[in-house]
Amino acid sequence: MDAVHVGVLVPVDPERPMPPPELRPVGRAALALRRRGVVAVFGDRFENGELVGMIAEPGRWRPVRQAVVAVHDRFPSQRRAAAFAALRAAASGVPWGNPPALTLLCRDKIACQRQLAAEGVGGLPEVVDEAADLERVLALWGTAFLKPRFGALGVGVRRVRPGDPLPRVLPSVVPGREDPAILQRGVDPGPDWAGRSLRVLCQRRPDGGWHQCPAVLRRSRTDPVVNAARGAEVVPAEDHLDAACQARVAALAADCCRALARAPGAGTAVELGVDLVLDGEDRPWVVEVNSRPRGRLEVLAALDPERFGAAHVAACGRPLLALAAWARAGRWG
């Protein structure tokens, strides 16, 4: 069977020395894909219909210009908006995994929740985006999280209570820009924790179904934002949640993936990160869904490579296997 070339849209600097592929999970994944007839081309621009970038070979990364059958979008489109616009224009005839319509939907926390609710997904804390309503609803709720509507990476997020300042705009993930502020109703974590949050990485299989990677639990007894950079503990969810809770989490994550893949223009979704929080009775609530999930499974692999290293490598390549299979079959999504 002839090799299929699939692009991965990421920033590439061919002048920067890179360690051999064998030394990084994404490189090991790329080498494993090659053994299955799928060549991953990591690149950040198209020239004359070819993706300019790098491919993994044993012991090295080789610069290439290569036509691809599809691309998986992992490009930082908010911080590099001009470069991303050029990519979109140059790759307009190429099928996209995680297409721009899905990215824009996930980025807009109000629109994303409306799509989930319209598709019947439960476990959604209320959100409010009308500036005139913020103080009123916060007084009713008692606690909430103030967030930038189009934010990412936890920038600008904080817990608020009645009487706290409620700015109408918040810092964006893009330096020098501000986003409208929204309120998301707080979920009571119970007396034992300040907060517990879960990330479930969901990826498409070649048959169109969804695979769920091991869920990652972050928890803190002092910080309601539950950010690892601020000291939250990161542990495997399966070690700390009972089977019933894990089943509820898995079911909610699956519902989110099906709901978002049915949104207009999002049928070729291949990877979503579903973020949930747990209340004091271990009920999960969906707080957002990310179209460019990162980091959580990598943390588990670093903590316990024997247990999670293979899962992390497999996760790096799974979306590309789906795109390659769909290209070979001439059927997308």
Describe the structure.
There is one protein chain. This protein is of the alpha+beta class. The chain contains 8 helices and 17 strands. A hairpin with a 2-residue loop joins strand 3 and strand 4. Helix 1 crosses helix 8 and helix 7 crosses helix 8.
Pick out its properties:
alpha+beta; six-stranded mixed β-sheet; six-stranded antiparallel β-sheet; 30% helix
Task: Lay out the secondary structure.
Elements: E1 4-9, H1 25-35, E2 38-47, E3 50-57, E4 60-66, E5 70-73, H2 81-90, E6 96-97, H3 100-107, H4 109-118, E7 127-128, H5 134-141, E8 144-148, E9 158-160, E10 169-171, E11 178-185, E12 195-204, E13 210-212, E14 216-220, E15 233-236, H6 243-261, E16 271-278, E17 284-290, H7 296-303, H8 305-329
Parallel strand pairs: 1-2, 1-5, 5-6
Antiparallel strand pairs: 2-3, 3-4, 7-11, 8-9, 8-11, 10-11, 12-13, 12-14, 12-16, 14-15, 16-17
Helix pairs in contact: 1-8, 4-6, 7-8
